[in-house]
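In the present case, backbone shapes were mapped to integers, as reproduced here:
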Amino acid sequence: MSVDAPYELLEALEPGIARVLAHNPSAFTYYGTQTYLIGEEEVAVVDPGPDLPEHIEALLRAIGDRRIAAIMCTHTHRDHSPAARPLADATGALIVGCAPLALESVGPRADAAFDGDYSPHRVLEDGEAIEVDGRAVTAVATPGHTSNHLCFAVGDALLTGDHVMGWSTTVVVPPDGDMAAYMASLDKLRQRHDRVFYPAHGPPVPNPQRYVRSLMIHRMQRENQILRLVAEQPRDVPDIVANAYPGLDSRLVAAAGGSVLAHLVDLEKRALVVREGETWSKAA
């Protein structure tokens, strides 16, 4: 993707897969949310994005007079699903994909708050597919970033939502974010044979299996680092973040704390650390 981010324009990535970039850049969304259009004669709209009038208008222009087979959402964070309802109202298309999920406590970023208005016409289970323009679009359940997260397989391409991003590691924040589930979902993708990943944020990933292995190694290294730190002395999450992420952008400190907490909760379940109040120590 070019640095000058061509917002609100339809860009063809390969036959039958194109994208429109929403103008919602941030420290968490990179240049913004990429909405994908699958198909040519008819289309599915994947991750319609934030409810921004200019983005919805851009999607309607990109769709033109083509039939919309479905509006599909990977998960229900507010930078992914809110445009589904106005787009459905404008076109009559059905909303299909992840299950509804809305929590009161949503972690460190405003744009990641859950979309409480999301109401799908059909929820896809792992392995379920719909036909779009003669091709199957198949749901691949990938819980971890959120418990309701899906990826969508189109031939040998995989639309990965926020489970795998092309520019950064994924934020995993309890209570809904689950590090053990996230790692299991990464391993699930590692065992697939996709040619390319198309994330909701960041450039395409042309070597998916190698990239997924690198993400898993990164998380295992972070886990070992956290274990070393709490073995030195009991620590709370802010102390772990300060030592594990030196020089971290202040905008990302809360998100890093969420991921550290997700690691600690997983380690606690595996009886490798113990918690006393807000302080964590290595298990005896």
